Amino acid sequence: MKKYTPADIEPKWQSVWAENKAHQTSEETDKPTFYALEMFPYPSGEGLHMGHVRNYAIGDVLARFKGMNGYRVLHPMGADAFGLPAENAAIQRGVNPRAWTLKNMERIRQEQSRLGNSYDWDRYVGTCTPEYYHFTQWLFLLFYERGLAYRKKGTVNWCPQCATVLANEQVENGLCWRCDSEVVKKDLEQWYLKITDYADRLLEGLDELTEWPEKVRAMQRNWIGKSEGAQISFTIPELGLTEVPVFTTRPDTLYGVSYMVLAPEHPLVPRLIEGKPNEQTIDQFIGQMKKETELSRTGSDVEKIGYDTGAVAVHPLTGKEIPIWVANYVLMDYGTGAVMGVPAHDERDFLFAGKYGLPIRTVILPPGQEHGKNDEMKEAYVDEGTLVNSGSFDGMSKREAISAITHHLEEVGSGGKTTTYRLRDWLVSRQRYWGCPIPIVYCDSCGVVPIPKEDLPVTLPEDVTFDGKSNPLTTSDSFRYTSCPSCGKEARRETDTMDTFIDSSWYYLRYTDPKNKELPFAPEKANEWMAVDDYIGGVEHAVLHLLYSRFVTKVLHDAEMIQVDEPFKRLFTLGMVLKDGSKMSKSKGNVVSPMEIIEKYGADTARMFVLFAAPADGELDWNDAGVDGIYRFLNRVWRMAQQHVELVHEKPEVKLEDSVAQGLNRLLHQTVKKVTIDAGDRYQFNTAISAIMELVNGINAYPAEGDRGVLAEAVEKMVLMLAPFVPHITEELWHDFGHESSVHKKSWPTYDEKALILDEVEIVVQINGKVRHKSVLPATADKAMIEETILAEEKVKALIEGKTIRKVVVVPGKLVNIVAQ
Ligand code: ANZ
Ligand code: ZN
Fold first, then answer.
1. Counting Cβ atoms within 10 Å, is residue 256 exposed (0-12), middle (13-18) or buried (19+)?
2. What pLDDT, on the 0 to 100 scale, is given for residue 332?
3. From the CA of 346, how far away is ligand 1's center (Å)?
4. Domain at 760-820: CATH code
5. CA torsion angle for 200, 202, 205, 207 (degrees, to 10)?
6. What's the complex ipTM?
7. Which residues contact 45 (CB under 8 A, 6 or more apart)?
8. Is 385 in contact with 392 (CB distance < 8 Å)?
9. What is the pLDDT of residue 626?
10. pLDDT confidence of residue 372
């Protein structure tokens, strides 16, 4: 018998597929479309890791499954190829970032092919190529034309290690998302995209994304952080100001205010402290706070620190004076940068007031309580209740008071309803070389001038120095100095490049029309495929990439470039691959290299293992014995199929005359049903594979003299069902069966619900609760018939001889219990 040698058959079929362009997107426009997409990789110098293998295996199974189910499938791949590692390699090893990246891209492409993934390579997209970034620049200009790209000076997050600014989304717990360095604050003039204009639509859109994991939707909701409340104006007489607003979600607690707090960076602070006793201390405090991150100031375990400015504010309703403080826990870039302190009903204020001896005034009583007991308070009371000490609003519920007080403030001109968001505009400037140049020049006469679209792309220069200290683009005179597109005079080019998340926010659209030289994509091409039906990737992109892509899609929708306004219909986030319980990493020395596994066992084993070893959304613990087990299983499949080559070829008639043949037929239909639903619809690849394993066992146990028709059919369909999971071995076996065309072009097997119905069932007979006998009855038998048949059986009669039957309990399809004494 021919031996299973993945090292021969896998490369063989891969070249056949490449030659035949087997994975090219088909032009059969009468078929329904299916867009299957895996997040494209960053082409690092290390090649693919097991997480990639798992990600691509899922996408590939879905793409192949849909193809076999009559869809016209788009399944593209590319590389997210701009970014810092290339530049760091240039700084550390003197290599050219472009050459370094292109080499890595090629390597990854080879490895992806070696996995047997069915990508349409003709649509390959690398974001660092001028053909691609031409249109990243085009998009930037579209944003600019629509008033959605602007330049602003402000306090930004700066990573000293990466020597560049970061967007808010790229600061995780105060650390740089890429290198984990502590992020500091800096004042710089930078480009922003106005994602805040889309805050409400980004939020509302989440409700429609019912096929996204709830976890991801919740993370985006939190990130957008919509908060409804009121703006309330206080007066500061010594500055002659009547409208210093605070933002609060609890206007009902207005009578409980005992102080006001400004963020240390609040523009009024220097004027308030001038000449006051705390002036120097507060000045120092401001300097210190400017360097700190949001988390180090507002984390729940961070101590609250503040200083009395010595100035007072006047309450808009009571006219009473309250002290104005500055404190670390109030942030300048949220709400108005000013807060009304209500210690009795806000936890942070409670701690702050306790520490600095500020008064605590109860204005909300818990239901059923008649008096406030401030001296006994151990924590702020934040729940529902009834208003007290609140003038004419006494007796109202929290909810009533929120609207009544807000309404009253509106009437007296001291405030009103307002909504704030946590979301900030997307800071997209990066002081780095290996990114997409921002297509803008600065002219002394004309100011900020966008490069005309017909002059794109602005390409990256080669005459740059990588010293690791400053933006290399500033070292290229040929790049920096240019002429103004509008007046022709000398002008300077913007030397910042774009955040690489812009590159990846639209690549899925480029795949629909990858060679277009005029536009990022033709609307009709994108509309043919969008939205992506299945998008598969890591949960680490829950906010960053997935939020940015949604934003960009909405802008392109508004620009009438595309019909849909959500890019990804269904999202699947896969779990991590671990080894011995911890994440595979170089530093832990526990990395299992995909290419080594492929060399040893073949790509089919690697694919099947990552799909089988754990549910796709859970963590997968790498386990060598498990890989071995899969390899043995594929060998078993191989031997069984080889044994039956003649039989399958012959295709005897399926007769189903005896119960053994009917049994195998039923198992076959059950398996088809389970695999179709689990793998095709529920991302349950592990259970789908177990079902096929059971079928293999069933075929193995089938008697040699049994009905040959059903056996041939079971073997053939088993190979068909395995095809999306293990594309090489199945292609080889399929051809061994005598077929000329590819197994991957065959239709997916169907199942017959009728064949699933059991004709007969085994009934357990218990006597006084003990199992004594088993009997086979028609599956359709009802209670009365079961009881009658069982009691009439000789064996049963013998067992209860001499006893009186007290009771008979019948569970149809399962058991009969006879109580006899
Ligand atoms: C008075 C008050 C009383 C508040 C009370 C809460 C409870 P969310 O839900 O996150 O929007 N706040 C407003 N601006 C702030 C800033 N720049 N820095 C820090 N805290 C700020 O929270 C809104 C609440 O956070 C606001 O409502 C304000 O405190 C505080 F019993 O105002 B509240
Ligand atoms: Zn000019």
1. buried
2. 92
3. 8
4. 3.10.20.590
5. -80
6. 0.94
7. 85, 89, 100, 104
8. no
9. 95
10. 61
pLDDT-above-90 percentage for the chain: 81
E-assigned strand segments in 508-576: 534-538, 571-574
Distance 112 CA to ligand 2 centre (A): 48
Ligand 1 proximity of 334 Cβ (cutoff 6 Å): yes
405 lines ligand 1 (CB under 6 A): no
pLDDT of residue 755: 82
Ligand 1 contact via 339 beta carbon (within 6 Å): yes
Q: Which pLDDT score, from 0 to 100, does residue 424 have?
A: 94
Among candidate residues 390, 373, 410, 361, the one with its CA nearest the CA of residue 259: 361
Is there an atom of ligand 1 within 6 Å of 258 CB?
A: no
Under-70 pLDDT residues of the chain: 372-375
Q: Which amino acid is at 766?
A: Q
CA torsion angle for 89, 93, 95, 100 (degrees, to 10)? -40
- pTM for the whole thing? 0.88
Return all residues near 685 (Cβ < 8 A) that are at least 6 apart: 58, 61, 611, 612, 616, 678, 679, 725
Instruction: Give the number of C-alpha atoms closer than 13 A to the C-alpha of residue 41, restricted to the C-beta side.
Output: 23
List beta partners, residue 810.
816
For tokens 């080499």, the residue is 103
The continuous run of DSSP H or E covering 774 comes out as: strand 770-778
Q: Distance (Å, rounded) from C-alpha 155 to C-alpha 290?
A: 8
d(CA 502, CA 787): 72
Q: How far is CA 192 from CA 84, 143, 379, 493, in A?
A: 20, 10, 41, 17
CATH of the domain spanning 638-756, picked from 1.20.120.1730, 1.10.730.10, 1.20.1420.30, 3.40.1160.10: 1.10.730.10
Q: What are the residues facing 631 on neighbouring strands?
A: none
Q: Tell me whether residue 800 is exposed, middle or buried, using C-beta atoms within 10 angstroms of its C-beta: 0 to 12, 13 to 18, 19 or more.
A: middle
Q: Following CA atoms 723, 108, 568, 204 in sequence, which dihedral angle do they give, to the nearest 10 degrees?
A: 140
pLDDT at site 488:
96
Rounded Cα–Cα distance for residues 232 and 254 (Å): 9
For ligand 2, an ion, list residues with CB under 5 A. 443, 445-446, 484, 486-487
Domain boundaries, the chain: 31-138+502-583, 227-420, 638-756, 760-820
Backbone angles phi, psi at 614, to 5 degrees: -160, 160
- Tell me the CA distances in angstroms from 118 to 106, 141, 192, one per residue in order: 17, 35, 38
Q: What is the pLDDT of residue 502?
A: 98
pLDDT for residue 374 = 54
Asked if the 31-138+502-583 domain carries CATH number 3.30.9.10, the reply is: no
| Distance (Å, whole) CA 777 – CA 759 | 9
pLDDT of amino acid 370 = 73
The reply, when asked if residue 186 is annotated as ligand binding, is no
d(CA 89, CA 97): 7
Contact (CB, 8 A) for 681 and 673: no
**Is there an atom of ligand 1 within 6 Å of 633 CB?**
no
Q: Is the domain defined by 227-420 classed in CATH 2.40.30.20? A: no
- pLDDT score of 375: 57
Tokens 């080559």: give the residue: 645
Bridge partners (DSSP) of residue 443 are: 447, 491
Task: Report yes or no: 116 and 730 within 8 Å, Cβ to Cβ.
Answer: no
Annotate 88-156 with three-state secondary structure. HHHHHHCCCHHHHHHHHHHHHHHHHHHCCCCCCHHHCEECCCHHHHHHHHHHHHHHHHCCCEEEEEEEE
Max CA pair span of the chain: 117
The letter for the amino acid at 737 is F
Task: State the distance from the centre of ligand 1 to the C-alpha of 292, rounded, in angstroms.
Answer: 20
Task: Kindly identify the ligand whose nearest atom is closest to the C-alpha of 487.
Answer: 2
pLDDT at 333: 87
